[in-house]
Amino acid sequence: AIRGNVHSSIKHSWFRYTSESVLHFRILSLPGMIKFRGRSCSCWQLLLFVALSALVVATEAAKKQPKRPEFTDNSRDPTEDELDVLDAFDDKQLRAQMKCNGCGVLVEELQAAVSEGVAKNAGKALKSGRGIEVLENRCHSVSPLYGLQHRNNKPTEVWSKDPAITRAQGSWMFTYVQTICGELVEEFDEMFIAESTSTSTPDLQKKACGKKGDGLGYCSNDFDYSKMNQHTVKLDSEL
């Protein structure tokens, strides 16, 4: 039981108590009773108050934490039905090149993200937590932008985010790009954080996209990384 002059509503009391910046209480001689800011209350009431206060503090702290982007876990190649729309991809070699190019352009994006982060950090290397946050944010921001560049009104194996270039886009392409980017961050975050400002883009692409076991295996072992994300089939006008 609460002794003395108390509020008629416990809920109102809690709001008043939580608005106080400092808690003052002392143990009374009466067993099980506690003096709290001029009022006496039982131990269970104090415990309830402390629990509610902790919940309020935790909730406010959570609101201030930056929301980290989430990556899709449905890693897969486009289905045959999806690729039927893209007549240019009847050739398995073009499909393989599309995946290799996708990995390559995303390595370039992640390298740029870390380099920009280092520049904003007065040239100092990013700490692990901040570096991962920078990488994930870049994946989250660029995934909706990429599409397959058109040539002769057909999509090709070359990825582009340039709004001035006609490109094929769709929900599966967003998932495709986001998944590869998430895999790169998961497997090679330490490499990007440590080497983005000191290693060339082709070398990073080879490490991340190359030979299965070392990289993700998206590019063939003999791939020429100087030709990353370039058209492999020339038009008649280019021959």
3D structure, described in words:
The protein is mainly alpha-helical and 239 residues long. 48% of the residues lie in helices and 10% in strands. The protein has 7 helices and 6 strands; from the N terminus they run αβββααααβββαα. It has a 3-stranded antiparallel β-sheet with strand order 1-2-3. Strands 5-4-6 form a 3-stranded antiparallel β-sheet. α4 crosses α5, α4 packs across α6 and α4 crosses α7. The protein is elongated. The N terminus and C terminus are likely disordered.
How would you describe the shape?
A: elongated
In terms of structural class, how would the helical and strand content be classed?
A: mainly alpha
Order of helices and strands: HEEEHHHHEEEHH
* Mean residue pLDDT: 75
Distance between the termini: 93 Å
Biggest beta sheet attributes: 3 strands, antiparallel
Percentage of residues in strands: 5-15%
Radius of gyration: 29 Å
Query: What share of the residues lie within helices?
Result: 40-55%
* Number of strand elements: 6
Record the strand order, biggest sheet: 1-2-3
**Uncertain segments of ≥5 residues (pLDDT<50)?**
1-37, 64-76, 235-239
Q: Tell me the number of helical segments per DSSP (H or I, 4 or more residues long).
A: 7
Characteristic key phrases:
single chain; 239 residues; mainly alpha; three-stranded antiparallel beta sheet; 7 helices; 10% strand
What secondary-structure arrangement, pairings included, does this model have?
Blueprint lengths: L9 H9 L6 E3 L5 E4 L2 E4 H22 L15 H5 L7 H29 L7 H15 L4 E5 L2 E7 L6 E2 L2 H25 L5 H9 L30
Antiparallel strand pairs: 1-2, 2-3, 4-5, 4-6
Helix pairs in contact: 4-5, 4-6, 4-7, 5-6
